[in-house]
Amino acid sequence: MVAGSKCRKIKAMASPTVSAPKRETDPKKRVVITGMGLVSVFGTDTDTFYNKLLEGQSGITLIDRFEASEFSVRFGGQIRDFSSKGYIDGKSDRRLDDCWRYCLVAGKRALEDANLGPAVLETMDKMKIGALIGTGMGGVTAFSSGVESLVQKGYKKISPFFIPYSITNMGSALLAIDTGLMGPNYSISTACATANYCFHSAANHIRRGEADIMIAGGTEAAINPTGVGGFIACRALSQRNDEPHRASRPWDKNRDGFVMGEGSGVLVMESLESATKRGATVIAEYLGGAVTCDAHHMTDPRKDGLGVSTCITKSLEDAGVSPEEVNYVNAHATSTLAGDLAEFNAIKKVFKDTSEIKMNGTKSMIGHCLGAAGGLEAIATIKAITTGWLHPTINQDDLEPSVTIDTVPNVKKQHEVNVGISNSFGFGGHNSVVVFAPFKP
C-alpha cells in the first residue's frame, strides 16, 4: 500500500511535464484565418496554386523579362501573364512597381475571400481593421529606374513617384488608401523572414484589442537586373542554368544555392469574436508565433541552430502547444548548403521524436520569394491543413544522409495535420516561426 501511494504521488508530480499547455480560449484573443489571397508563379487562385504544388510542378523558368544572357544566373520563378484587372485602375497600374501591384491584388483577393468586399467594408468600423504587409526589398524597379534617370539625365528627370514607389511601407499604405482601412498600418522589413514577422505582429494587435481584423503578409518583385545581379554578387544563387526546373533542391546533396522567386501572399487574420459576429467562414486558426535573432552573421546561419531552435520553442509556447502535438513543418529550406542543414538540426533539437513529423519545401517549386516567401508558405501550410494533403519537395534525388525526417520526396502524401509550423529566416539572422492548426470551435 505504501509503495502504491508513493507511485501515485510520483505520477501526480510528473503529470504537469507531459500535459499539453493551455491554448487561448477567449474569443476576443483567439486569432482565426478567414481569407487568403496570393499572386504566384502559378497565378492568383489559391486552389490552383496548391493543386500545382500537389502535382509537383516547377514554376522555375528562364528569365525573359530583361536581357539576362550575360548574367551568370539566367532563371527564376518569374511571374508571367499577370493581370490586375478589376483590382487596380489603369493609370495606377501603369505607374506602379510590380511589388505593389502584387500586394494590392493579393490583399484585395484575400478580403474578397473573407467576404470583406467594398460593400461589406462600408458597414464596418474601419478603425478596427488594419494592414501589415511587408517586403524585403520594396519597389526595386522603381528605385533602379530613378537612379538610372539621375545618372543618365540628371535629377530633374527623376519621376515624382521614385520615392513613394520605392519605400517599403507602400504596400500596406496603398491597400488602406484603396479600401479605407484605418487601423494599425505599417510594414516590417526583415528580409526573407518578413511575412511571418507581419503575421506575428498582426496577431498581437488583435490579441491586444487594437484591431478586430488585420490584413497581413508579404510581397516582393525583385526579378529584375538589380535584384538578380545583387544576389549573384552575394554568391547565394544556384547556377543550374541548363535545367532551371531542377535547380531548387532542398536537402539534396547536389544543391548549389537558392532560386529567386516573386509574388505576394496575404492572410485575413481576425478575432474569433469578430468572425463569429459577422458569420465569417473560418479556414484555420493561428495559434501563435515568435521571432528571434541569430546575432551571428549578415548572410550565414549559426551552425548550432540556436536562434532557430529557440524561435521554434518560443512559437510553441506562444501557441500553447507541446512539441509532441506538431506533426507538420513547412520548412524555410532554401536549397543552400549551410541553411538547409542548420534548419534541420534546429528542428531535430526541438522535436526529439520526429517519427510522426513530415516536412516539405515549397521553394523547390516556386523559388525563394524573399519577403513574400512566408506569405505564400503560410497559405501552403493552411491548404495542407484543410485538404489533408502535403505537397512534395521536388528534386529529391540524393537526400543528405543526416536528414532523417520524411521530406515528402517528389510525390504528394496524405497526412492529417494536427498542428503545423511554418519557418522563415532572413539575412541578418532574423528568425520567425508561425503556428497554425485546424479550427475547432
Spatial strand arrangement across the major sheet: 5-4-6-7-1-8-14-13-9-10
CATH superfamily: Thiolase/Chalcone synthase
Number of strands: 14
Question: How would a textbook summarize the main sheet?
Answer: 10 strands, mixed
The CATH topology annotation reads as: Peroxisomal Thiolase, Chain A, domain 1
Number of DSSP helices? 14
Task: Give the name of the CATH architecture.
Answer: 3-Layer(aba) Sandwich
Mean pLDDT: 93
Order of helices and strands: HEHEEHHHEHHEHEHEHEHEHEHHEEEE
Written account of the structure:
With about 450 residues, this protein is an alpha/beta fold. It has a single domain, classed as Thiolase/Chalcone synthase (Peroxisomal Thiolase, Chain A, domain 1, 3-Layer(aba) Sandwich), CATH 3.40.47. Helix content is about 35%, strand content about 15%. It is built from 14 helices and 14 strands. A ten-stranded mixed β-sheet has the order 5-4-6-7-1-8-14-13-9-10, with helices on both faces. Strand 13 and strand 14 form a beta hairpin. Helix 4 (about 100-115) crosses helix 7 (about 170-180) and helix 11 packs across helix 12 (about 335-350). Residues about 1-20 have low confidence and may be disordered.
